[in-house]
Amino acid sequence: MQEDSSEKTSDKSEEDDWHLYANADYGAAESLEKEPVKEDNTVDEEWFDGDDFYHEGSSIDWESPPCPAPLGIAHVIKIGVCDHCLHRIGGRRTESLGFEGGASLRKEAFSRDSELSNFEVPELCPLCENLFDDVGNIADRIIETLEGVQFKSMQLGIHLPKDLAQSEDSIRTKHGSQGSKPLKASFALAIQSEMLIRMPEIAFVKEYPDIMVTVDALTLRVDTDVRPVFIYGRYEKLVRGIPQTRWPCRSCRGRGDGCESCEGTGLQYRESVQDIIGDPVKETLIASDTSFHGMGREDIDVRCLGSGRPFVLEIKNPKIRNEELSVIEGKINSNNPDKVRVNSLRWCQKKEVSRVKETRSEKSYTIRFKIENPPSEKEITEAIHSLSGIILDQETPKRVSHRRAAKTRKRKITSIADILIEGSEIQFSLRCEAGTYVKELVHSDEGRTTPSVKSVIDRECEVLWLDVNEIHAD
Ligand SMILES: [Zn+2]
Ligand SMILES: [Zn+2]
Fold first, then answer.
1. pLDDT tens readout for residues 237-293
2. What is the mean pLDDT of the chain?
3. For residue 62, what pLDDT band results from cuts at 50, 70 and 90?
4. Residues lining ligand 1 (ion), CB within 5 A?
5. For the structural domain made of 363-471, what CATH number should be given?
6. Closest ligand, as measured to the CA of 262
7. Cα–Cα 20 to 30 A to 221, which of 62, 157, 173, 312?
8. Active-site residues: which are they?
């Protein structure tokens, strides 16, 4: 019995990865923007007698102090900033924001200095390369891509070309008003505001969004990622012969369109607990796929009874995210009620996956086996009872040694009860520590488990079946 898979969670939290990526991206861009211009020590001793002097390697032109000074505003108008950027780095309060705010600053500046309007304005704003003109289109595209998808919250990530971020930063820090918002943050904010005009019911969040949107400022490509939803529950597996999760076909490994031996399904077993539970959920939430995360797993030929085994079902790309759990539970429990049933469903967060996978708990089992030349019932009963409360030495079983490191573990048998003897067949129930190999406790795995039922009754033991009666967790 391979209990409590100790394999490390291989699917490193996608969500966390996204956060890392999104934050690293922001962080990297910001640290880049904030990186001080390198000090040039060779100019320390120089005398200055002109209008310019060196300050941290860059010259400050006293003819154009930074915004919000009128000369500063005049300067950034001369270099051709767009209205949006003028408002952003102008450092002056205006009645309206964005383009309109910039336009009123420009008008003010023209009234102070009529010659300003004669400067030829370059086609592209040197600060944003006219990025802000595309905000409306981007919002349209986000909404278009999410057609038919239900969501309440969104998180936005922006990819800004490095050279644009750098040149914007150097102009803004030199000529812009102190504390004006960098391009990336302003661009993100502009898209958010535009989205909120169109969809006032949604919220922009910093964690656990329903949708993650990435906008590439260079190509204006919009990518949307519908985040998965998670349902916690417990399952009972009422029959033998069903694996917990999908098993790819041994011949074709589930690649392509499958093969003859799997009849094109790509699966070694047609049914799994994962799909009996996941298929109706996938259908109800109009999702693309599911992942199944169990609190350990039972072997294919082992049933899982009692209150069931805790699990988390991850539902990917759901178009619907707010279905009633009672409806979902009803659909699962009518899918294949003779084989798999669920209870205690609740919505949960991604972090519940690792909690469920890492939890180690005691379990109760019933096991039945066969022996040759049975001794007296009294001898059998006493021998089996002698194992109650002992600590086993279990070497990694032969049947799993190809995928587990060989080591000897100590596992406690907490209690033994309900010994039943029917001719040469014997059955008993036990409660034991997480990770105990129960079949091996009975047949000894060629002496790798000591002591064992085989060693205490001195007969070969052939295991007939095993049931998990209870998982003492949650
Ligand atoms: Zn601009
Ligand atoms: Zn196949």
1. 999 999 999 999 999 998 888 899 999 999 999 999 999 999 999 999 999 999 999
2. 87
3. low
4. 82, 85, 125, 127-128
5. 3.30.70.3190
6. 2
7. 173
8. 299
Cβ distance 52 to 201 under 8 Å? no
Ligand with minimal distance to 171 CA: 1
Query: In terms of Cα–Cα distance, which of 81, 119, 120, 115 is closest to 101?
Result: 81
pLDDT for position 61:
54
Asked if 185 contacts 158 with a C-beta cutoff of 8 angstroms, the reply is no
Cα–Cα distance measured from residue 325 to residue 87, given in angstroms and rounded to the nearest whole number: 49
Q: Which helix (H) or strand (E) element contains residue 408?
A: strand 408-422
DSSP state of 248: B
Q: Which pTM was predicted?
A: 0.79
pLDDT band of residue 27 (cuts 50, 70, 90) is: very low
For ligand 2, a single-atom ion, which residues have Cβ within 5 Å?
249, 251-252, 258-259, 262
How far apart, in whole angstroms, are the C-alpha atoms of residue 308 and residue 234?
5
248 C-alpha to ligand 2 centroid (Å): 8
> Cα–Cα distance between 370 and 157 in angstroms, integer?
63
DSSP codes joined into one string, 44-75: TT----SSEEEETTEEEETTSPPTTSHHHHHH
Question: What is the Cα–Cα distance from 222 to 51, expressed in whole angstroms?
Answer: 47
**Domain 229-358 part of CATH 3.30.70.2510:** yes
- How many Cβ atoms sit within 10 Å of the Cβ of residue 62? 11
- Amino acid identity of 4? D
Domain boundaries, the chain: 64-225, 229-358, 363-471
Give which of 438, 457, 460 is closest to 449, Cα–Cα. 438
pLDDT of residue 97: 87
Sequential DSSP letters for 126-191: TTTTTGGGGHHHHHHHHHHHTTT---SEEEEEEE--HHHHHHHHHHHHHHSPTTPPPHHHHHHHHH
Which tens digit of pLDDT belongs to each residue from 409-441?
999 999 999 999 999 999 999 999 999 999 999
pLDDT reported for residue 114? 83
The pLDDT value given to residue 7: 40
Amino acid 256: pLDDT = 84
The reply to whether domains 229-358 and 363-471 share a CATH topology is yes
